[in-house]
Amino acid sequence: MEKHITTPLTDEKVRELHAGDYVYLSGTVYTARDAAHKRMYEAMQRGEEIPIDLNNNIIYYLGPSPAREGQVIGSAGPTTSSRMDKYTPLLLENGLKGMIGKGKRSKEVIESMHTNNAVYFAAIGGAGALLSKCIKKAEVIAYDDLGTEAIRKLEVENLPVIVVIDHEKNNMYEEAIK
């Protein structure tokens, strides 16, 4: 089924999404990769504030290439999600509702998604130049010393993603194997 969703990603919106749904996301999405996840995780472990409010938000596992002249952002393809699995359950427990990446997730992450009513979207790997056209605004908001892995606030319009794992633990990757 094709759906158009505007962020924030509320509990109600998450419950309406099912594995296999084609979704066009519009609104605010944050980016974070390995190094940013590690920093946020360690800060949370110490009881410190992190630079983004996770509540009802989506993190896109993205480290864009530099923007060319006249562009908002460079190539914006997803990175492998499993590299964030160690950190993800804590972020989900603190309100994160959606993740965008590529590849499988651990059993721990899937259980945490179920417990915390969250969803995992896949973006098409190798289509970063095309996906960047859906990003209307990009701003580094934290960890700028990480370069491409800094946390960015994106404003997206009709960013195409697929629900790969829904809040009920339905998993397109497992279904495809069967």
UniProtKB/TrEMBL annotation:
Keywords: Lyase. InterPro entries: Fe-S_hydro-lyase_TtdB-typ_cat, Fe-S_hydroAse_TtdB_cat_sf. The keyword Lyase applies. Gene3D superfamilies: Fe-S hydro-lyase, tartrate dehydratase beta-type, catalytic domain. The keyword Disulfide bond does not apply. Pfam families: Fumerase_C (PF05683). It comes from the Bacteria. Residues 6-175 form the Fe-S hydro-lyase tartrate dehydratase beta-type catalytic domain. Belongs to the class-I fumarase family. This is Fe-S-containing hydro-lyase. It comes from Jutongia hominis. The lineage of its organism: Bacteria, Bacillati, Bacillota, Clostridia, Lachnospirales.
